[in-house]
Design brief:
It contains 3 helices and 5 strands, in the order αβαββαββ. By secondary structure, the protein is α+β, with helices and mostly antiparallel strands. The two termini are 21 Å apart.
């Protein structure tokens, strides 16, 4: 990691969470969305890890038992929050 990226990361860690470009999200975190067949719409880097906001391909965030098992088996998964707006937030 270059010095500027390290400085940027340290600056972000001072705040609770800062929005980051999806392209800066590590590949293993981006893979969570692929496992669920959803699209990442926002990504945040915070003091307790990453937060990714997902939306389903059809505008919904419906998950079945298989989706939950795949998510729970991911070593980066920490928590899940389902809003009423068709979005799911995942801490990872």
């Amino acid at each position: 990691m270059n010095e500027q990226k390290i400085a940027d990361r340290l600056a972000r860690e001072v705040t609770a969470a800062a929005e980051i470009p999806i392209s800066e999200l590590p590949a293993d975190r981006q893979a969570i969305a692929k496992k669920l067949g959803m699209k990442i719409i926002d990504a945040w880097d915070g003091i307790h890890g990453y937060i990714i906001m997902l939306k389903g391909n059809m505008g919904t965030a419906r998950m079945d038992a298989g989706d939950l098992k795949r998510l729970a088996s991911d070593s980066n998964f920490r928590w899940l929050d389902a809003s009423g707006r068709g979005q799911i937030s995942i801490g990872c």
